[in-house]
Amino acid sequence: MFFKRLTLPLIIVFAIGMAGFVQYYVPHPWSDAFQEEMTTWFRVIGGFALFLGAYSLLHMHVTRIRRAAPGWGYSVFVFIGAAAMIAVGLYNDGKGPLGPDQQKDWFDWGYRWVFVPCQATIFSILAFFIASAAFRTFRARNAAAVMLLVAAIIVMFGRVPINEGVSGWLFGQDHRQVFSGAATVVNEYPNMAAKRAIILGVSLGAIAQSLRILFGIERSYLGGGD
Amino acid sequence: MSDAPAKSRNLKSSIEMGVVALLVVVFMVVSLFAQFIVQDAGRHFHFTWGADPRKSIGIIIAAGLTLVMYSFLYRDNAFFKVAENLYVGVALGYTMIMACWRQALRPDVYETLFYAPTAAAFWNAALHRAMPILLGILLITRLSRKYGWLSRYSYAIMVGWGAGVTIPLTVNSFLFQQLYASVAPFQDAVAPHAAMTAFSGAWFMNIGLPVLGAVVVMVGTVAVLFYFFFSIEHKGAGGAVSWLGILFLMVAFGASFGYTVMGRISLLIGRINFLLNDWLRIST
Amino acid sequence: MSESSAASRGMTIARWVIYALVALTVVLPYFVVFPTLKYKVSPESAKLFDKVNSLKPGAHVMIAFDYDPASSAELDPMGRAILLHCFKKGLIPVVMTHWSSGLDNDRKILAETAARAQEDMKRQEPFVSGRDYVFLGFRPGYSNLVLNMGENLKGSFDKDFYGQPTAAMSALQGVSQLKDLDLVIDLAAGASVEVWIAFGSDRFHFPLGVGSVAVQAPNIYPYLQSGQVCGLLGGLRGAADYEQLVDANGAAMRSMWSQSLAHVLIIGLILFANARMLLARYRRTGKATG
């Protein structure tokens, strides 16, 4: 049982991983065909994975309702929203789940007038919070904070068109790009240097993590138990 | 004495309920006027369902949900939680139907197998799809306590492949190409202008500035990497390099903050656009 | 009233004033007529425009709408402007997404822009899906989907979003793999740019342009300098740049006053808070030494 539950999956990880690694360096039609076959598999498995993810979330809310957990009443709305969308999606304006997809049905309506405004608004609320946070916490207390603050102000001002009018007014119409130029310099030199270092660091981390997976050191993806 | 705070809370709650009721009435009236009341040539108002009443009702609901979401700015409240959970549900339903069924399982599994145009196409599909379908089904066993371990085979293949292909692609795209890009500007700047008179205006523009920029980038990259990776005590020369790395990082975080402000404001503009243009029909 | 509650009340009032000011600066340009903003297009935006502009009619431009409605305000205008440019130049846009929750939004943008291009060009015939443009839709897989498309694009999407088979689609003639595309533009709200670079353009060798949400934009500069990305539209300003270049007068250009005023407000708030802090520090030091 231990072999079937742990050893064999780890052998598969190593074998498939090495095959994926090696095929990159083999410029042969068989290698390409292998890559196409494998990635087709993952496209198909992806459909099942999406189902698993969506079902798990729904199941969590159904359990909350069943157990009458604190705030369970709100989970009813998750269930209502999901049930309504699944129902109108399957109904497909009378064509059914196998028929051609209808583009102006209640499914599209639910998407346009419930999903879109809610999602877009949730993220736009952050505009108020970021303004408030900037006012309350952004202080030039030391050299590092001064650098942060100056760079933020240069980019904030240099990336909106009003800066050119102000620049022209301050330095003359021949020098309208002083602030936008400064923002470009900040982005293309110090910002890029630090971001490149982050890319290099993250990449080394990703490679180390991949090696840990291939050699069976990292196993959390297998879930709990033996 | 102890009743005083309770009374104050009750009063506050009553006032809030009254304000909410008033806001709902105002919202309904404004929506009605914006979407369904038109003014004729004789300056008389009259009701009309318009060309697309379903859309108009949708706009009103969307505007209502938008304003309910913004009520979070006052404080977390029941209306916000209802809207938030409804959104999660609708998103879930949409994903189930659109992503999971219409754009994945139906074309890649159902139609490929059951709508195969010829017998040969069916056997070809069966050959290439049998394994991923089996792995997909095994993936779903994760929902079962008894058979959950079977899903490990699907995860093993997916994660193993991911780890295997990630290594060479990351090495190429994010290590080699990024490292090369750090030194390439020196060659690019100097090689074509090698014959140029040193310290002339043209030399400064074509060689001096690009090389200076490349030096800044290289110094910054090395300093930040030093700060990240070297766990020795940061003092002396090492401390100076590390401190320089922090300064570069701070400039980068500042740039990110500036851009983040830009992004958040843009999202707010998007919603204001919707409220003013689509809901209230105040065209700009 | 205790000192701490008074302080928190003061903070709450300040918070409300800030919220109101942010809302006001964004709304003001809708009611007050401001002079037209004149500005030069950012060099990174111009690079992407030049790349699209250099393509010959009939060239295939894949546009990956890798975002959902949360980022619509920033990326929809980019998508519309790039599509408009493609239609007007006779290029064939091939649209797909890795983000299924944006699908119907993408479909709407494509249909509306095709109609707008027809109107702008005073064209008798409408732009037709499958002949003048392609909407492939979504397939799961993410990085694996990119690898899969790199080997066999029509295998990844054997049918388009509308259920039409792609094998014999006239708009996809001559395209069987990603490398057959003349340009790919990723409109990205997340980390899809890195996926397109490592699993796509560097692996299969095709030019890649990026339109990114502002939050991600500063992270793209290393790829722009290395040549792994041929142009960058950063945030709503990037979208406004592209709209200006294609003469679209779209939502992004119209929003630039709101954007500008809100930025000036936030800079003002930061400077005010810092000036107040420095003044308080100066007074404290003055008292201590005096």
Rough shape of chain C?
A: elongated
Order of helices and strands of chain B: HEEHHHHHH
Q: Got a strand count of chain C?
A: 6
Subunit organisation of the chains = heterotrimer
Pairing-aware structural class of the strands and helices of chain C?
alpha/beta
Query: Unreliable runs of chain B, pLDDT <50, ≥5 residues?
Result: none
Number of E-type strands of chain B: 2
Q: Give the CA-CA distance, first to last residue of chain B.
A: 56 Å
Most strands sheet of chain C: 6 strands, parallel
- Give Rg of chain B in angstroms: 32 Å
Give unreliable regions of chain C as ranges: 1-11
User: How large is the count of helical segments of chain B?
Assistant: 7
Walk me through what this model shows.
The complex is a heterotrimer of chains A (226), B (284) and C (290). Chain A has 226 residues and is mainly α. Chain A contains eight helices and no strands. Chain A starts with a helix and ends in a 12-residue tail after the last helix. Helix content of chain B is 79%, strand content 2%. In chain B, helix 3 packs antiparallel against helix 4 (119-140), helix 5 (151-190) runs antiparallel to helix 6 and helix 6 (201-229) packs across helix 7 (236-279). By secondary structure, chain C is α/β, with parallel strands linked by helices. In chain C, strand 1, helix 3 and strand 2 (92-97) form a beta-alpha-beta unit. Helix content of chain C is 54%, strand content 11%. A six-stranded parallel beta sheet of chain C has the order 3-2-1-4-5-6, with helices on both faces. In chain C, helix 3 (72-89) runs parallel beside helix 9. At the A-C interface, helix 2, helix 4, helix 5, helix 6 and helix 7 of A face helix 1, helix 4, helix 5, helix 8 and helix 9 of C.
Helix and strand arrangement:
The complex is a heterotrimer of chains A (226), B (284) and C (290).
Chain A: H1 2-24, H2 29-66, H3 72-91, H4 106-124, H5 126-137, H6 143-158, H7 162-171, H8 178-214
Helix pairs in contact in A: 2-3, 6-8
Chain B: H1 3-36, E1 37-39, E2 45-47, H2 53-70, H3 78-114, H4 119-140, H5 151-190, H6 201-229, H7 236-279
Antiparallel strand pairs in B: 1-2
Helix pairs in contact in B: 1-2, 2-3, 2-7, 3-4, 4-5, 5-6, 6-7
Chain C: H1 3-31, H2 43-53, E1 60-66, H3 72-89, E2 92-97, H4 103-120, E3 134-138, H5 143-151, H6 153-156, E4 183-188, H7 192-204, E5 208-212, H8 221-226, E6 232-234, H9 235-245, H10 251-254, H11 256-289
